[in-house]
Amino acid sequence: MDGWDGLDLRYCSLERGPEPRHGGPRGCVRPGGEPVDRYNCFKDLQDHEVEGVDYRIRCRIGTTGIALLCIHGGDIEPGTSEVTDGIAGHDHTFYALEGLKSCGNKTLHITSTVFDEPTSIEIVCKSEIIVSIHGCSEPGESVHVGGLDQTLKQRMANMLISCGFEVPDDAHSRFMGTDQRNVCNLCGRGMGIQIELSRGLRRRMFRNLETLRGRRSRTRLYHRFVSAVREALRPFGAVQTEPVESDGWEMIR
After folding, report:
1. Alpha-carbon 141 to chain mean position
2. Does the model's pTM come out above 0.90?
3. pLDDT band at 15, cuts 50/70/90?
4. d(Cα 204, Cα 165) in Å, to the nearest integer?
5. Average pLDDT estimate for 223-241
6. HSE, side-chain direction, 13 A CA sphere, residue 130
7. Per DSSP, what are the bridge partners of residue 55?
8. What is the pLDDT of residue 170?
9. Is 94 exposed, middle or buried (0-12, 13-18, 19+ CB in 10 A)?
10. pLDDT tens-digit profile of 27-64?
């Protein structure tokens, strides 16, 4: 990837329509039963939460043009930070916004179609391939692969299936990730992919999904998933197929 100075936003697909209303009503739900987010943009969250206490932002810049995003990391959607970090390794770009609260981290959730934290948007604008990792509440053990990049999405689904993972047909589900405003689709190519990991699958990836200490102990299933995703990405960048863990050479705000 090139240097990061002098970013030209003309090449970033940032048209997201009208600005959302400030702060969605607390306690409400959408028609599908999903809770409405407390915050409708990052500035809204930033005005009400303390960085370094309630949340933190981690990132490191890779060299392949591929970026792995985790916008609901830490204890917002447990296990997604660790999975995203493992896939990124030392070569791909890594980004995570992580919830740090002792409880109530779900309030830090900003939906993908309005997520606009500046560092993440800069990373998206400078990357050719975007893979956004999420966690859903399903108790089963499935992986939902969505996004507008049909070529990568199909390769990713085929690779995961061949490695023994269940990948449902999400043609008509809420995990499609095909909204152009979704952060995974905001790169210069205008298309990326979104991966949703069920809670049941994430539980099997760690000794204990519910604690940071427990998530430091990863299972063979975790390593099998990370290796499968990295292999699916291999033709799209100059990468190593052997997964490697980060060793701290990153920015933490």
Report:
1. 18
2. no
3. very low
4. 12
5. 85
6. 32
7. 51, 99
8. 74
9. buried
10. 334 444 455 799 999 999 999 999 999 999 999 999 99
Residue 239 scores a pLDDT above 90 = no
How distant, in Å, are the alpha carbons of 18, 31, 115 from that of 28?
21, 10, 20
CA–CA separation, 249 and 153 (whole Å): 30
Tokens for 122?
């800069």
Is 226 inside any structural domain?
Answer: yes
Amino acid at 172: H
- 158 φ, ψ to 5°? -65, -40
Residue 226 has pLDDT above 80, yes or no: yes
Query: So what's the pLDDT on residue 36?
Result: 77
Q: Is 135 domain-assigned?
A: yes
Give one word for 79, left, alpha or beta, with left for phi > 0 and alpha for psi -120 to 50: left
For residue 159, is it within any domain? yes
Instruction: List strands edge to edge, sheet with 193-198.
Output: 143-147, 193-198, 129-136, 66-74, 93-99, 55-60, 251-252
The alpha carbon of 164 is separated from its chain's Cα centroid by a whole number of angstroms, namely 22
CA-based torsion, 195, 136, 123, 100: positive or negative: negative
* CA 144 distance to own-chain centroid: 13
Q: Which pLDDT does position 208 carry in this prediction?
A: 98
Question: How wide is the angle at C-alpha 36 spanned by C-alphas 33 and 39, nearest 5°?
Answer: 160
* Number of domains the chain contains: 1
Distance separating the N- and C-terminal Cα atoms of the chain = 22
Is residue 70 scored above 50 in pLDDT? yes
Domain limits at 200? 24-243
Q: How far apart are CA 73 and CA 94, in angstroms?
A: 12
Q: Is pLDDT at 253 greater than 80 in this prediction? A: no
Look at residue 186 and tell me if it is in a domain. Answer: yes
Write the CATH number for 207. Answer: 3.40.630.100
